[in-house]
Amino acid sequence: MAPLPATRDGREFARALAQANDLPLTDARDIETEYRRFLYLAAITDAPRVVSVNIRQAWQMHARSPEYPAFCETVLGKPLPLDDTSRILGAAHAYRTTRSDYLREFGQPPSPIYWPEAVGPRVPRWLVAHGAILGLSGALAYGQGQPLFFAAGIGLALALYGFDLYSAHLGRKRRAFGDRMSDDLMHFLNQTQGH
Question: CA 135 to CA 154: how far, in whole Å?
Answer without folding.
Answer: 10
